[in-house]
Amino acid sequence: MMQLEKYSIGIGDRFAHQAKAQLQACVLATKAGANVIPVWNKSNREHMIIGSEPSSVRAAADAAVQALSWKRPHHVDADHITLQTVDRFIAPSDFFTIDVAAFIGKQADPGDVDRFVNRHPELDSGAPAIAGKYLAAAQEAGRIYRRIESAKGAGNFITEVSMDETDSPQTPSEVTVILALIADEQIPIQTIAPKFTGRFNKGVDYCGDLDQFSREFEDDIGAIACAVDRYGLPRNLKLSVHSGSDKFSIYAPIRRALEKTGAGVHLKTAGTTWLEELIGLAEAGGAGLAMAKEVYAEAYAHREALCEPYTAVIAIDPAKLPAPAEVNEWHSEDYVAALRHDRSCTSFNPNVRQLLHVGFKIAAKMGERYLQMVEACEATISKNVTENLFARHIRPLFL
Questions:
Q1: Which one, 20, 55, 101, 194, has least CB within 10 Å?
Q2: d(CA 33, CA 211)
Q3: Mind listing the pLDDT tens digit for each residue in 337-347?
Q4: How many CB atoms lie within 10 A of CB 360?
Q5: Which DSSP letter does residue 319 get?
Q6: Is-contact 105 129, C-beta < 8 A?
Q7: Residue 101 in domain
Q8: Which residues pair with residue 35 across a beta bridge?
Q9: Global pTM?
Q10: What CATH number has the domain bearing residue 45?
């Protein structure tokens, strides 16, 4: 069976131009003593907005692997796929994040719930209610898994089940029941993405109780270990953290839990690389800076439409967004300071960062004009992409 290694990092490359710079961060990690496996991920929604095909992710990843002579595994993740969207991802992907959040809480057949509970007397008294909430989601995950398996063959891909895009965090008891449900569907799950307490807003740091997060994370590791032993799930099963980019403050408690338990983790960093493209454009000055300002001006003008799909995962104060006329007066260092995620910098503006995080649609509409500028500014962009992934994500978590 294809196996995901102990430590892995999900990396988004919205415009398929930064795979080599991203992989270089994993090369640096290997040289420093940490084997962190790259997993390039892109969702159907992102493909639809940008107008790209899943095959472009595979092509970019494989080209980077060849260019840097990377000898360890690498994977391409069909991110947040559903039964309606999975088919176009099957050929180029070898990692599938099955998203069944829309089925959480849907009414399952009461007889199916009863049969599940009767099969699992080891579960506590809360199991019937939890099964009633999650059984339909697990059954849908089974349908999606079997669709992929019928096309690719058993053991030829990695499966993650995502339950994080929902309103309420799951307790460890819920995670235990969810894993029993998944095991009953005979899904050889290798990563599970529960929803944790706190807010995981796009592009900025975690907002919540770090002590509570730490307890939840460690308790979930324990629930996974128990489920592996009880239900015969893959022994490399691990937590997947869908960070929404740059949740720096949770890296220390995650690292402590990994060191204490010996568990692995899959960290998805989402759109942080897209923001490094903008930083690299601004840092290049001249036409690159002008394009970065144009992206901001258009994002500001269309901010309500851009933010509407992400209302649950952004917290922007419109009063703290500078007007485009003000941004047009900025020098390179002003733009970079406002956007780069450095909370020690007094010029850092998390509102600007969140708006631009969801504003990649603006660059997508620019089409070739944007891509040509990215290529022209490759030197400054790639430097920022690599440094961001290695210094701000990989090093504090894995080294």
A1: 55
A2: 29
A3: 999 999 899 99
A4: 24
A5: G
A6: no
A7: yes
A8: none
A9: 0.97
A10: 3.20.20.70
